[in-house]
UniProtKB/TrEMBL annotation:
InterPro entries: RibonucZ/Hydroxyglut_hydro, RNase_Z/BN. It holds the Pfam family Anti-Pycsar_Apyc1. It catalyses: Endonucleolytic cleavage of RNA, removing extra 3' nucleotides from tRNA precursor, generating 3' termini of tRNAs. A 3'-hydroxy group is left at the tRNA terminus and a 5'-phosphoryl group is left at the trailer molecule. The gene is rnz. It is an enzyme of class 3 (hydrolase). This is Ribonuclease Z. Keywords: Endonuclease, Hydrolase, Metal-binding, Nuclease, tRNA processing, Zinc. CDD domains: RNaseZ_ZiPD-like_MBL-fold. The active site is at D66. Zn(2+) 1 binds at H62, H64, H142, D212. Its EC number is 3.1.26.11. Binds 2 Zn(2+) ions.
Length: 303
């Protein structure tokens, strides 16, 4: 069962050579969710062999351009490519106005419906649920209203003990009922107690996406014990004054956040264009939280 994220962009504010503004593609059980959509996202999808037509939902954190300037282009391309199935967008309310103006003046009539779901950055809320996962907002502290997103897998079915079942001559056709936690009576009269033939599945995994924010601790309860945390790390810690003024985070602070909340793994991204090489940022975060990686474009991380 897939639960993984591919980095499409990891730059803050402006693109630099080899780094695009923020965008990520989450794959949960072969359903695709876009997280932010910086300029050039559709090019990145093509570059990494990912199909825009498979994406049905987008989550936009806030209305700084480096997080959504790619959306109009992407939607226009979907239209030109004949999309007819609806596209769902979770974003601050004003984004719909922005999209409508662009479509109105380009006389673009989308052939598919945009199911626009406004989100507010006041308190954490569950905004999306399906059979695979739940999405909850994380209230961040940025210069304008900004929400992160916590993606949590739904609890998986129980695991069957195949060797024991084979030894006891239980046909595979009964496995699915056992996975659902049921006790069974077989045609030959034998009763299978579920607890003897299954074990509990792993705890549901979670992916937290935190961009952009200052690391003021206000949102830590929302991301506690997550399996994988993406946290912005725009600056090195020698620029903490700049980070505070612009409501961003340093690599050192991102490491501290991951440590404080007991995250399993940390990805850092949203790097300032001033950094030509990213190794110092990685080392700074790893000094506090060893299991840190750079959110480099084209890399897919399993949650
Ligand atoms: Zn940004
Ligand atoms: Zn921003």
């Amino acid at each position: 069962m897939k639960f993984e994220v591919t980095i499409l962009g990891s730059s803050s504010a402006t693109p630099v050579f080899n780094r695009n503004p923020t965008a990520q593609l989450l794959n949960c059980k072969d359903k695709f969710y876009l997280i932010d959509c910086g300029e050039g996202t559709q090019q990145q999808l093509i570059r990494f062999g990912l199909k825009a037509s498979k994406i049905d939902v987008a989550f936009i954190s806030h209305l700084h351009g480096d997080h959504y300037f790619g959306l109009v282009g992407l939607l226009s391309t979907m239209n030109l490519n004949g999309r007819i199935k609806p596209f769902q967008i979770f974003a601050p309310a004003a984004l719909m106005e922005i999209l409508e103006i662009q479509f109105r003046y380009s006389e673009t009539n989308l052939r598919f419906e945009i199911d626009f779901c406004p989100i507010t950055a006041d308190e954490p809320r569950i905004i999306f649920q399906n059979q695979d996962m739940t999405v909850e907002t994380i209230i961040l502290n940025h210069r304008i209203p900004c929400t992160g997103f916590k993606f949590t897998e739904k609890k998986r079915l129980r695991k069957v003990l195949v060797e024991k079942l084979e030894k006891d001559n239980v046909a595979p056709e009964y496995y699915q009922l056992l996975k659902k936690g049921m006790d069974l009576t077989l045609p030959d009269g034998r009763v299978l107690m579920n607890e003897e033939y299954t074990i509990d599945s792993d705890e549901p995994k979670s992916y937290c996406y935190c961009s952009d924010t200052m690391a003021d601790g206000s949102y830590l309860d929302s991301i506690r014990n997550c399996t994988m945390l993406y946290h912005e790390a725009t600056f090195m810690d020698d620029m903490i004054e700049r980070a505070n003024v612009t409501h961003h985070t340093t690599a050192l602070q991102a490491g501290r956040v991951a440590k404080d909340v007991g995250a399993g793994k940390l990805l850092i991204g949203h790097f300032s264009s001033r950094y030509k090489t990213l190794l110092p940022l990685l080392e700074e975060a790893q000094g506090v939280f060893a299991n840190t990686e750079l959110a480099l474009e084209g890399i897919t991380f399993t949650v």
